[in-house]
Specification:
By secondary structure, the protein is α/β, with parallel strands linked by helices. It has 11 helices and 16 strands.
């Protein structure tokens, strides 16, 4: 199985983090070099890099870059600077828990480290590279576990982008579809546009084109009609955070899609690595929901013209909360979890995420 793309990787020659600039897709596949932790923070904030797993690994490399860019020769001062950098990176996207998970992993290494500045720099880079490799390994396991749920001939609705672009490589929910396709199953995908940034129409459709998987783009509001008309077999999406009771926080629009699936007896699955689970949040209501710049909504155009009246205002919630009762299963690298999710997640926490 050949790797099609890696959304981010460390470039030894330039000593920088190379990332696919997702703002340029689908018209141009371009890699951007990030040389500083500030570059990383800006890339995350501006969604040049997006997708919870990719954000987390990118932030880990941001910590490694912070160690390299500093002029400190004293380890204690460097550690203090790294804690400041960690706080700065955490503020870029408050909802995706992988960001917190990755930064905390790096800071735990910092706090436990005893050695020279150069040794700490090397350790942080090595840890970031390990997190990247572990992400790919987890995605492949998610894909294998989830592909078992898909039947030959299935028609699936997806939301947002959950492929290689949203991870280090291969993908979560879209990785499941890709794996089923590579196994020889005939899959057709209805791709929600995913407004206002159109991650489905721009990114998921682009990835499906690369894989040779047939698809149709639909407006977000059309998914309910297709599901009720019996034209959909399964609904599949990712997660930016999963609470301890199984509530899923994901791209806004996921809740309405899940409601339509539940009302019509269509199974809906969330696919994500266990690093996305937030055991400290008892339910979805405990999770901060990011509200982004209203201009992402107000700047939308139709036939080259802005669609809203001059002076219009907007609210731009980036995520919503899907109650666990609407979900048929949670697909992880450790297997597929079934209701009651609070119990299966508690077992997963007890035996370890990677069990």
């Amino acid at each position: 199985m050949e790797r099609l793309m890696r959304s981010l990787f460390w470039d030894e020659n330039s000593q920088s983090l190379k990332v696919i600039d997702q703002s340029c897709l689908p018209t141009e596949l371009r890699y951007l070099a990030l040389h500083t932790s500030r570059d990383v923070a800006e890339a995350i904030q501006e969604m040049v890099v997006r997708g919870a797993p990719a954000i987390g690994v990118c932030a880990a490399y941001g910590m490694a870059l912070a160690a390299k860019e500093s002029n400190y020769t004293d380890t204690a001062k460097l550690k203090a600077y790294l804690h400041e950098t960690g706080e700065y990176l955490l503020a870029t996207r408050p909802t995706a828990v992988n960001l917190t998970w990755a930064v905390e992993n790096m800071l735990a290494l910092v706090d436990q480290f005893s050695g020279s500045v150069s040794e700490l720099q090397a350790e942080l880079l090595s840890e970031a590279q390990q997190l990247a490799d572990e992400d790919v390994k987890a995605n492949m396991a998610i894909a294998r576990n989830g592909a078992e749920l898909l039947m030959d001939g299935d028609v699936i609705v997806t939301h947002c982008n959950t492929g290689a672009l949203a991870t280090v490589d291969y993908g979560t929910a879209l990785g499941v579809i890709r794996m089923a396709h590579e196994q020889g199953k005939h899959i057709h995908v209805y791709v929600d546009e995913t407004r206002p940034r159109l991650q489905g129409a721009r990114l998921t459709a682009w990835e499906l084109t690369q894989y040779g998987i047939p698809y149709d783009i639909i407006v977000d509001a059309a998914a309910g009609y297709l599901i009720r008309s019996g034209k959909v077999d399964r609904v599949l999406f990712g997660a930016d955070r999963v609470a301890a009771n199984g509530d899923v926080i994901n791209k806004v629009g996921t809740y309405m899609l899940s409601l339509a699936a539940y009302d019509n007896g269509i199974p809906a699955y969330a696919a994500f690595p266990t690093s996305t689970i937030d055991f400290d949040s008892p339910n979805g209501d405990a999770v901060p929901i990011e509200e982004r710049d209203p201009d992402e909504v107000l700047a939308l155009t139709y036939q080259g013209r802005v669609v809203v009246p001059e002076g219009a205002t907007a609210r731009n919630y980036a995520f919503d909360i899907t109650p666990h009762r609407l979900l048929s299963g949670l697909i992880t690298e450790s297997g597929v979890l079934y209701p009651p999710f609070f119990r299966s997640l508690a077992v997963l926490k007890h035996v370890g995420r990677n069990a």
